[in-house]
Amino acid sequence: MLLKVLAVALPLFAVQSASMAQDLEKKGLPCVAELCLGDGLGELSKVQWAPAQSAYKVNNKVQMTSARKLTDDDVRMLHGTWPNPGEAAPYLYDKQFDGNALAALAKITAACDSNELFGTFGADTDTPTRVGISLTSNPTDLSKQVWSVTTIVRDFPSAVSNDDKSVITKLLNQRYAKFGAGRPDVPQASIGEGRYFPGGMSRFGFGLSLYRGTDEAQRLKKNPACSAADKGKAG
């Protein structure tokens, strides 16, 4: 089993040439082989995403987000964060995305509160991965917002024994030391910086997160579309 785990893990940490897949750091932010924190919709379109599903079942059956029908109350609730949800409304409501959602999400240019949608890929591989994307504000121009990868969580289901986990943990600590892996002395992130975090108790793996600041909601609300929406409610 250890050989299999090494075969899976080692390519994730190799320094790769420019002619091959991207390095595992881009613009000062950490990456996995397929994506980096801070990546936009263009990079997301290169990944094979699992179809988005609602967290709730209907008649004990899985409901695909693309087929979800929203009520008027559902849409009104969305407007609290999304002034113009449009065709992306089912995905925004379920807080899920997939490859089919990206074109609709590209038309969403304003969010009035903190937000994150999740998509998954590689469910049947040795590195299933969950990715969170958010519409984030431009730090120098709050009238502009852009979709960015803000969370990456990767599991290693093949790592079962303590030896397996120890080998991968050492590799992770080497690869992501700059971002806090195995290093309690790494300072608190500033807005726009990436940090590493270990996996949860139930799954062995790791995560990467983009720090967006405690005042993110206030910054997002300064978008002109949010001001216009507030005036409309007042009227």
Total domains, how many?
1
| Major sheet summary line | 5 strands, antiparallel
Strand order of the largest sheet: 3-4-5-7-6
The global form is: globular
According to DSSP, the number of beta strands is: 7
> C-alpha Rg, in Å?
19 Å
Mean pLDDT: 88
Account of the 3D structure:
There is one protein chain. The chain has 235 residues and is an alpha+beta fold. The chain has helices spanning 2-13, 41-44, 72-78, 89-94, 102-105, 162-175, 216-220, 224-234; strands spanning 25-26, 29-30, 117-121, 129-138, 141-155, 194-198, 205-210. It has one domain (2-49, 110-234). It is built from 8 helices and 7 strands. Strands 3-4-5-7-6 form a 5-stranded antiparallel β-sheet. A two-stranded antiparallel ribbon has the order 1-2. Strand 4 (129-138) and strand 5 (141-155) form a beta hairpin. Helix 1 runs parallel beside helix 6 (162-175). The model is unreliable at 10-22 (pLDDT under 50).
